[in-house]
Amino acid sequence: MFSTIIAIILFVFGFFILIKGADFVIRGATSVAHYLGVSEWLIGVVIVGIGTSLPELAININSAFEGTSVGVGTVFGSNLFNMLAILGMVAFISPVVMRPEWIRRDLPINIGVIMLTGAALLFPISGGNYYGITRPEALLLFMAFIVWIRFMALRKDDDIEQPHSEYADTSAWYISALLIVAGLVGVFVGSEWIVDGAQKVARLAGMSEGLIGLTIVALGTSIPEIAISIRAITKKNTALAIGNILGSNIFDLIGIFGIAGLIATIPMPEAFLFDYLFLLFTSILLFAFMFIGKINTISKTQGLILILTYFTYLIIIIIRG
């Protein structure tokens, strides 16, 4: 009983740490972008996007060693929560205007990564009917991750943005880097406390392992993305708000599955095929929104549709159990 009370207290305090950490990350990232003369989109996709996905990486490595499906559920659930709930909330707060470069290059990459991951999960290179990631598939995904990182590092961005007034300081690069590190530490610590508290409550409620991974753990590990994206959009920093989501999703699929799968085989229950297909549908829906209504914009109405789609998904998987 006492440990449950402590977990709940840390759950609440974790939100405070999380918000402050998100502020540090945004300030540091925009300052680094200004210092290096690169776009905040690149910083958001690569540095912040990968950084906020480290909790999912740790969970997948542990899950692979234990032979459980929590890791796969966490990745699928986190990706869906990012694209539907977080992006929906961001658009509902303020319509999201996407640059043509992002739509032409990064959204198709996101769809391609989902399809590649699906092929690795459903069609083992070594043959057989195994659903999951074995080492050959993991190596393929990890190589795709390296190619993506190289592409992001070498590509020339024509959408360089100057940091917004609140964050437009010219601090030394190492101070900005320390802000990012300190912010990410705060984000991770806060999210860990939140996840611990939420998991304890979930177990008391008798939820299944797969459902915990798809919902409680996935939502908990996505809290860094929530905090950073919503705080960024309130500061009118669209590049960091959206880049963080896409970067996190891409790293979740090819980076995390690639790294964790090289360490240990990752099993996927057949029931998760629905969640994968729903994820693919969501990525295509997001791309289609760019050409429906106001071009290159996710409107408030579309943001609401994304949120309602996520709640529909939640109802389905809760009923499924």
The gist of it:
This protein is an all-alpha fold and 321 residues long. It has helices at residues 2-36, 40-51, 54-66, 70-93, 100-122, 135-154, 173-204, 209-221, 223-234, 238-263, 272-289, 300-320; strands at 96-97, 132-133, 266-267, 297-298.
Total beta strand runs: 4
Sheet/helix structural class:
mainly alpha
Strand order of the largest sheet: 1-4
Task: Choose one word for the global shape.
Answer: globular
- Taken as a percent bin, the fraction of beta residues is under 5%
Low-confidence stretches: 159-168
* DSSP helix fraction: over 70%
The whole-number mean of residue pLDDT values reads 81
Taking the sheet with the most strands, its summary is: 2 strands, antiparallel
* Overall radius of gyration: 19 Å
- For the termini, the CA-CA separation is 27 Å
Number of helices: 12
Element string (H = helix, E = strand): HHHHEHEHHHHHEHEH
Q: Can you tell me about this structure?
A:
There is one protein chain. This protein has 321 residues and is mainly alpha-helical. 78% of the residues lie in helices and 2% in strands. It has twelve helices and four strands, in the order ααααβαβαααααβαβα. The protein has helices spanning 2-36, 40-51, 54-66, 70-93, 100-122, 135-154, 173-204, 209-221, 223-234, 238-263, 272-289, 300-320; strands spanning 96-97, 132-133, 266-267, 297-298. The strands form two sheets. It has a two-stranded antiparallel sheet with strand order 1-4. A two-stranded antiparallel ribbon has the order 2-3. The chain is globular, with a radius of gyration of 19 Å.
